[in-house]
Amino acid sequence: MYNKSDVQGHSLSYSFVCKLIIHEKVPCALFYFLKSCKVVFYLFVEMVVFLAVFVITGLLATSHTGVTEALPITDLLKWCTGLFFTMLPGVATMWAITVLFEKPWLSVGFNLLFVIPGVLVANTPFWIIYPYCYSGYLVSCSLHDYTTEGVNTAFRPFPFLLFAMLLFALAIMVAMTRFGKRQQ
Fold first, then answer.
1. Per residue in 51-78, is it b (16+ CB within 10 Å) or e — as a string?
2. Whole-structure pTM value
């Protein structure tokens, strides 16, 4: 690994991290893990921005229309948290595709090719094996439960969690091994 004296006086800038990797003081798996954490952090920031925009526009809409009842903030937090966790397998799959294909246009093309049919797959029994539609399925079930009475189409976590964790781990492992081979 690296000595404490190697890090002192240096900020952990991109060039310093690259120098550490070039001199083989940081394993590729750790570097990949840090890059994956950055992608997950971007997803987290997206959910925070979504929540903030939803709350602000909701407050503006309710004040201008005279509606006195608003969605409870706990429901919004629950849905944003659910969206975050249901998007983790999809983001891991997108990241794996990005790592597998070196050309950016190919990576973007494949990810778009897989995202667009997610709307169609979410309405079939095969939704569970297609990580791109997990968040859409959660939103569909939540909206259906919120708008209808007596019908419960709740998002069932048991089969979802098993497949989601399996697909998340598989995507991370494939990308990690491919990333390590590319860096060597």
1. beeeeeeeeeeeeeeeeeeeeeeeebee
2. 0.76
